[in-house]
């Protein structure tokens, strides 16, 4: 290693030791006294420290002599100072940095230690031992060290490689779990791997999350898309693993406490005590630390403490950003249901005859079909902090930049990251749109790469949930590209998510009109209704139903061939869209083309009569609507077929007496119509 030395160090004769040896002695002692070595790179760090301890004997001997040093030794010591300084920084980085990220970078870090050891050997090459006044032991130690470092090989700990491979497999499973119905994470294995690198308590996990977030911020803009996205995946894994792993631990602790408390109460409680007495003996674990009442809906905050949802939500919404119990600052505002505790509370309530109180105000965002992908499961979010929004903005702008100028592989990863980022939070969706992502995502809809197309259309679906984004997506000229994906997408998931996107956009009336001018959109939706998964069929029926609220679109739905297929769906129990099909058929009655097409079906009336008896409440209402519409305005033939069926009139009479308000009203109307029809034959009914 060639080093450009300061002019003061290049001179003839002997130079005084000066501050160089003092600095070396102090620096080597600092490195040698490092305590609590990190779990990652433990072997490289411990070996390097041992070598520096040997050098510290050299520096001590030199410092103890009054003789000036020859220039060649000054050069050696200067290089050793540089090497040891970098060793100190490298060890400090391993200690202060993320253990998980260090594990993924094990070969890179091992190589850095190897390079420094080789440089140490290069410096010792020019050390004139014969000219130095050293003790025999020190001289032999330095010679031995010199021989060792000259032939040292790269040391990559095989145990770290094994743990890294296990971690990568876990990350792969975690990524697959984000896809629809794929993969699962073995949290026992997660706990084992993370424990091996020193993560053993909730506090360890919180510190690791903070270190990963710092690493992501450091790498943004310099580390590349895959680096940032991999760190984000690790953060997601650690956060969720923390809740899963330590909820299980808390469950066991609570069970034990519950057993002890139950035994104590059993010994001391009077059998004839009143319910008021029972309520006064609620276990402390079941009381909200804020209200001190029995919790209705226990949730866990970032600090790991559990509160009643309403109480902690009021606390956070009033501007507090700390845990009421510990005073610890909350690094995120997610409220995670504590199912373990809730189960034990229910058991306690049943055992003690305490009425169960179901908090209906709990946030439950449910949507059928693929629209369910638009919300995070089992997590409620309080509005994010300014810092969190800043991080989202930085990430969004970085990913959009990669969409604009990246390679196909980078585009694929960027689209996937935007898809995940847009999955939760209206704030995220607004920021991504403001970063200019929508036009680039529209372009990617025509990609020949199945994954790129799927990620792009799903990202569009997630973004479209925000009302303002619907207008932006339509303004970007996206509708034809979305219809192309719906019609001939590379994967079924892409087609189904394209349908869900159209559903989301069609909530705006102007969008219904715009989509209605594209007849192939209706053909593509009918195609999905025929070919899709049960979820896809449901999506397609929902979109057609929504579009049909615009009168001009009803004819397009009929022309696309929806009616015979919907009738067929009523006979297919596996399709699982009976109510959706009935609702759409009832809506299509509102146009002459729809009424004519529905009347052509020979099997529909018997099906509707059966559904009057066995259908759901909604199904019965729509079945009556269809029968009433078919019997009106020239529907005498349908009325006669109804009268000939022995089950029709009793079913209508039953609904007229016991059905929903809407069903009763329409059943009465249909019975009157059938009565008039029978009057003409002198055989009244009802």
TrEMBL record:
Gene Ontology terms: biological process: protein ubiquitination
Pfam family, one: U-box
Occurrences of domain U-box (ranges): 281-355
EC number: 2.3.2.27
GO MF annotation list: ubiquitin protein ligase activity
InterPro entries in UniProt: ARM-like, ARM-type_fold, ARM_PUB, Armadillo, PUB12-19-like_N, RING-Ubox_PUB, Ubox_domain, Znf_RING/FYVE/PHD
Catalytic activity field: S-ubiquitinyl-[E2 ubiquitin-conjugating enzyme]-L-cysteine + [acceptor protein]-L-lysine = [E2 ubiquitin-conjugating enzyme]-L-cysteine + N(6)-ubiquitinyl-[acceptor protein]-L-lysine
UniProt pathway annotation: Protein modification; protein ubiquitination
Superkingdom classification of source: Eukaryota
ARM repeats: 436-478, 520-562
Source organism (scientific name): Salix dunnii
Transmembrane segments: none
The protein, known as: RING-type E3 ubiquitin transferase
Keyword vocabulary terms for this entry: Repeat, Transferase, Ubl conjugation pathway
